[in-house]
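Dear colleague,

Thank you for sharing your sequence with our group. We've completed the structure prediction you requested, and as agreed, I am returning the results in plain text so they can be pasted directly into your records. Please verify that the sequence below matches your submission; if there's any discrepancy, let me know and we will rerun it promptly.
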Amino acid sequence: MLLSTVSLLLASAAPSLILLLVSLIRTPEWISGSGTLQTWRRTSVLAAATGFATAALFGVLVLVTHTMAILPVAVLTSVSTSLLGFVSVQSGWTDFRFRKADRWVLRAALLVSALSSGIYMLAYRNETDLWLWLLIVLISLVVFLIPAVGKSDARVITLVCLAALPVTGLWVFQFVFLLVAALSIIYSMSTAPKGSNIKDTLTRKVSVPMVPLIAAPFALLCIVPVFM
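Please find the predicted structure tokens below.
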């Protein structure tokens, strides 16, 4: 049990630490030129702490509510939650403030999740699950070709397909995307000018901070394996 707990703590800490190092080493130009460098650093540290704490909690809960045979699921839950938790907190500030998310952080998160989820899917899931996961990931890459979708938004969509889908399962995954759509509509309505009717609210063009609105629900729903 001690070795398993240590493994989960490492799986929870390493992804957030990697993203923290990327944030501190490759500070975006739009941060450096905005006079918010200290806030960026504090937010990144908070994101790493949040990612680690949430991931460790979820991973340990998965482990204690099931047998040792589910340790690989607990480790993947920790890794995925750590990545998505970090992205949720950091982009929760940058996307609402600047309508931007750091592309290098998202790229690092994509790389880590591709490795962790890929190893898990190859080693512990059947061939059908593996091909379904790969198909959904490939479909998510098509979003990069849609001009109306920002590159960071496209990256976070691919990230949740890589990191969250193997943890949550397909049905919960679909439910969370519906939740994301609902949150986007609620945000659009809450920012509509006073006196706007429903038609104007739904048809007007709104800049929605999609990165945290996508990442945060998936980070929280990584708790699903506890109840399986």
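Summary note from our side: Residues 2-227 form one domain.

Kind regards,
the structure core
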